[in-house]
Amino acid sequence: MAELIGSTAPVSGSIDRSERPGRVGLLLVLAGLLVGAAIGLSFVANEQAQSLIVWLLALLAMAGVFFLFALAIGAIQLSGQGARDDITKAIVDAAPEATVVVEEGGRLIYANEAYLRIAGGDSFSNLRSVERIFVGSPEVSEAIYRLAQGAREGRSHTEEIRMAPPPSGTAEREFAWFRISVRALNRPRRTASLWTVSDITHERERQENVFQELQHAIDYLDHAPAGFLSIDPAGAIVYMNATLASWLGYDLATVGPGGPHLSEIAPGADVLTSAAGLPGEVRTDRFDLDLRRRNGHSLPARLYHRVAFGKDGKPGSSRTFVINRSAGAEFDEPQRAAEVRLARFLNNSPIAIATLDRSGRIARANASFARLFGAMPRQAIEEGSVEAGPEPSMGETVIERDRAALEGALAKAASGLGDVQPIEVALQGAGNRSARVWLSPAGGEGAAADQSLDEADRERVILYALDTTAQRQLEQQIAQTQKMDTVGQLAGGIAHDFNNVLQAIIGYSDLLLASHKPTDPAFQDIMQIKQNANRAAGLVRQLLAFSRRQTLRPEVMNVGESLSELTLLLKRLLGERVDLELKHGRDIWTVKADVNQFEQVIVNLAVNARDAMPNGGRLLVRTANVPGQAEAEARGGAPAGDHVLIEVLDTGEGIPPELMEKIFEPFFTTKDIGKGTGLGLSTVFGIVKQSGGTIDVQSTVGEGTAFRIYLPRHEPAEEAEPEPIAIPGPQAKLAPPAKAGPEGQQPAAETAGAASTASAPKEARKPSADHTGQGTILLVEDEDPVRAVNSRALSARGYTVLEAASGAEAMRIVEDGANTIDLVVSDVVMPEMDGPTLLREIRKHQPGLKVIFVSGYAEDAFRKNLPEGETFNFLAKPFSLKQLVETVKKTMSA
Residues 605-625: pLDDT tens digits? Predict the structure, then answer.
């Protein structure tokens, strides 16, 4: 702080009138009154004078007592008794900052010595206030006005002003800088403001000198014969000197926040920001690459890229030195041109290229190698550096399983063998990345294994690598699809044959039940046979669902309404420890799906989520519209077009990555033996696929799993013809659900039972009806037990049944014409002639003949083999005899 020297005679001390002095005049008046009273008493008689003197003394005594009381309670203070700290006052008096205290109304009550020098006064009569001292330019006047306004409002405020010329009380100079502050003082009687004035001219001069030196340094750096830039870890260019800006054609004013990004001046040079380092390491790398000028042309350059890593291993902003290697920038033009061409060839190649030593440590590498393996030599320049850490090894970039194969191929290449076979390796890090690696000797004489590595031995092996991640993922997807299709075909075939066996068991059970009374001891045994057959039928339906060959009855449905109707069932299945939350999107589109199958999908997923949360948790089911123009990630692999999204999210244990690819396979389960069939999620997969939808799974171990189902939006259209009537198979009454493992598959018994429970309220109990009838029925079935039991059931209801074991035999009966046939009940899959072929042949002879197809496969599986517009009825296997006779009666009376 500069010393303030006045031009007038020096003034010592300060002036203070903050406390009011005692008034001598009042004391003289009081003394005069007392003398006058004494003189007056001398003219009064003694008796009267005595009483007056007593009264006068009493009055004076009372005044004294009141004075003592007022003094005790502080109502009256003696002069000089105010709380004045002499040490504090001495400090303020001698302070280098000019200080003045102004009472409300502008009355000055204190000024220290420094202020007297600035103001050029020695008493309050000739002392000017701050507003009157600092006047001049508009900037100064505005600052003083803001300070005065703050003082009036009781606020603290500070301003820095420049006065030219300065006040007359300061040193002789052209200008001066002052820092003026004001703040309120709390006083018992009247408020006051404390003003301080500091001369900061020297401080400002030092700042300007530092700024000038910084400007000179920036100017030197800007006009250096080499380029320089700084890049932060996000790739933003923090600084670029004028030389590099002119090379690239950028205006220096546009460089900085919001200016060009690293990707704009160096496309594909993300290696500059992706290199990792050790905590506390200062790493310097050299790169030969092409920068991009603003006009799109390339600028060959060599970059010396230095990055310091913090104690936490996070990189800071770089210090990057750039050398122009374009034509004419170096003396040895042929060598320069050759080096530039080679650098472009290596760095722009999509193949990862690197040189390794005998132990697999990386000596040099191109940008593609850094992007693929995420590793670069820690010191790529010729000169060594004590700051550099050990160079990374190729073994660190691949998983443990493939390190032995890589080390074996590396040993062969380092020994000079040239016929090293390529190897497939999986890379470290997220994304399940993989690469195909070729290794070949770099040439030169070999060195003993125990010798120290010299510069020649530092690059013994050349590595070439291609990223095969996308190829491997595509191969895995194709293999998984083929496997699922193959297993689906196998499951469908098994289900079809098993349906025929179950059909015979259920049919004969119905015949036995019809001939036994409920009180018969064998009645309960027969019921157990039928119930277990129905359980097996539930398993068969799940196999058909997985193979996408089950019978679906799609209808236009509102997803939100269906989920709301399932709420009570889901809460009962989840139990008290799992919180269920439903969130419906706004204006959800309609979809066309089988309502019962949709409910089974949600129930299966909910029960799996429950079993993945043994200690309780939260299950969230929410819906949303996914427009066709949404990003591919938002559609979860669904094809283009509008879809409705149903998400089932839990906070369970999650699915390990090694099990993720197997969860939809039939009979795969994580539960103990006997506690599940492994068909829960495979059923979900089949139903969603058969409904034209897509299912996507994302899971994190320890956090939870999210199943996302995408069903295509239903666009209303005119229906050509009503759907044919079909009678679904019997709903089984099954045992309570078994405990499932974490994210395992849903037991068949539980899903079938839950789906039956969900759909039960929608089915009204039908009154008993007369199922007898008359007419001739041609029954075509290649399975003898099934044909026999169906024939007995129909014959018992009064129908004449003509049996045929194949389609060819049925055609002979039709062509014979000996009997008038009223109805054909035919299986679909038969040897020699299947059901659709039989129907086409029958239409040639009897175009109006009614037909009922029975099959364990879905109706859509064979409808495509029939002529367009062909009408028929359909009954899904296995069915009860009651369903058979009901369907026959309804069809013949239609």
Answer: 988 888 888 888 999 999 999
pLDDT at residue 641 above 80? yes
Tell me the three state secondary structure of residue 505.
helix
Predicted pLDDT of residue 546: 53
Question: H or E segment at 712?
Answer: strand 704-712
Tokens of 764: 């009204």
Residue 702 vs residues 68, 612, 698, 705, 782: alpha-carbon distances, Å: 82, 10, 13, 9, 54
Q: Which residues pair with 298 in a beta bridge?
A: 292
CA 726 from centre of chain:
47
- Name, in order, each residue with C-beta under 8 angstroms of 869's C-beta and a sequence gap of 6 or more: 721
pLDDT above 60 (res 22): no
pLDDT band at 894 (very low <50, low <70, confident <90, very high): confident
Instruction: Name residue 587's amino acid.
Output: D
Give me the pLDDT at residue 752, please.
38
Rounded distance between C-alpha atoms, residue 669 and residue 647, angstroms = 22
585, 546 contact by CB (below 8 A) = no
* pTM for the whole structure: 0.43
Q: How far is CA 734 from CA 267, 495, 530, 600, 713, in A?
A: 64, 20, 12, 15, 34
Res 336 pLDDT > 70: no
Give, in order, the Cα–Cα distances in Å from 859 to each of 283, 303, 393, 882: 69, 69, 61, 21
The two beta strands, 591-593 and 617-626, are unpaired
CB atoms within 10 A of CB 633: 7
C-alpha dihedral sign at 317, 318, 324, 326: negative
**3-state DSSP call for residue 163?**
strand
Give CA–CA dist 468/810, Å, rounded: 58
Q: Which pLDDT belongs to residue 746?
A: 39
CB 239 within 8 Å of CB 320? no
CA-CA-CA-CA torsion sign (598, 599, 602, 603) = negative
